[in-house]
Automatic annotation (TrEMBL):
InterPro entries: Glutaredoxin-like, Glutaredoxin-like_YDR286C, Thioredoxin-like_sf. The lineage of its organism: Bacteria, Bacillati, Cyanobacteriota, Cyanophyceae, Oscillatoriophycideae. Pfam families: Glrx-like. This is Glutaredoxin family protein.
Length: 84
């Protein structure tokens, strides 16, 4: 299972979500971090939305529900389980 996190440098919301994702041990997934400042298409798509979580489904990406910045690691794990 692959999860993509669209973020940018110095975004405290992005950093917080990444830290929580890295703490999840109850769901087997591969995390890919994409810096939106490295590609114009990512920047245009997500500049006002980050952090954005997506799941990779074949060749497609599907956005996941936006988690609250206050979500716990356990709640985030449940969100991932519910969407895979």
């Amino acid at each position: 299972m692959q999860v993509i996190l669209y973020s940018k440098p110095d975004c405290h919301l992005c950093e917080g979500l990444q830290e929580k994702l890295e703490q999840i041990t109850t769901v087997d997934f591969e995390l890919e971090i994409r810096d939106i400042t490295t590609r114009e298409d990512w920047f245009q798509a997500y500049q006002y939305e980050i952090p954005v979580l997506c799941r990779q489904v074949g060749e497609r990406e599907e956005p996941l529900p936006r988690p609250s910045p206050r979500i716990s690691v356990q709640q985030l794990a449940k969100l991932l389980k519910a969407n895979f």
